[in-house]
Amino acid sequence: MVLRLQKEAMVKPYERMTLAQLNEAEDEFDDEDMQAIQLYREKRLQEWKALKKKQKFGELTEISGNQYVNEVTNAEGDVWVILHLYRSSIPMCLLVNHHLSLLARKFPETKFVKAIVNSCIQHYHDNCLPTIFVYKNGQIEGKFIGILECGGINLKVEELEWKLAEVGAIQTDLEENPKKGIADVMVSSIRNSSIYDDSDSSNSDNDDAKLK
């Protein structure tokens, strides 16, 4: 009966139906189908629960210094934790917070937290901000300290995503460093400038020789 139903154009195979669709179509199945569907429903439910358990973060959460140990150092095993130490008076810190908020939604299996730097470290110098620490199992696996290490004042969210992926904190779908193209253009520009400088120097030497 199950195989026959799967072949009928008017009834979708239950393997391809959502839980909601299965509930709506219950009257169209016989007892044999219902037993198979119940097993399938339980399987899908377990898969959904496993997915929800894995994707349990999904936002950039503010923590205070006294929450640091529980939220970061003692985070659940095998959970990657990205901590941003910031000061709201520094524009680059606000930019990083914005990008991390987007990445937290894109990678809900990774824990993203932020903390005002003074609540965690006293007398931390502004030149070291923003600071991003990447933890796993209580150990620092990566760190980006200061504007340059974090990517510069024109940092794009894709560039920050790549940095975090290189450490291993997230599984990106980016195929190459998005800043690579910019670097290639800069290198090409420098090379072209060098060629023109050499040419100008050569021409100047020739002119000097003619004058002599």
Q: Could you characterize the architecture of this molecule?
A:
The protein has 212 residues and is of the alpha/beta class. Helices cover 52% and strands 14% of the residues. The chain is built from nine helices and five strands. The protein has helices at residues 2-7, 19-24, 31-54, 68-73, 91-106, 117-120, 146-150, 157-167, 180-211; strands at 60-62, 80-86, 111-116, 131-136, 139-145. Strands 1-3-2-4-5 form a five-stranded mixed β-sheet. 19% of the residues are buried. Residues 7-12 and 183-187 have low confidence and may be disordered.
Shape: elongated
Radius of gyration using CA atoms only: 28 Å
Strand element count:
5
Question: Are there runs of 5+ residues with pLDDT below 50, and where?
Answer: 7-12, 183-187
Strand order of the largest sheet: 1-3-2-4-5
Continuous helix count: 9
Structural class by helix and strand composition = alpha/beta
Fraction of residues in helices?
A: 40-55%
Biggest pleated sheet: 5 strands, mixed
Quaternary structure annotation: single chain
Mean pLDDT: 80
SS strand fraction: 5-15%
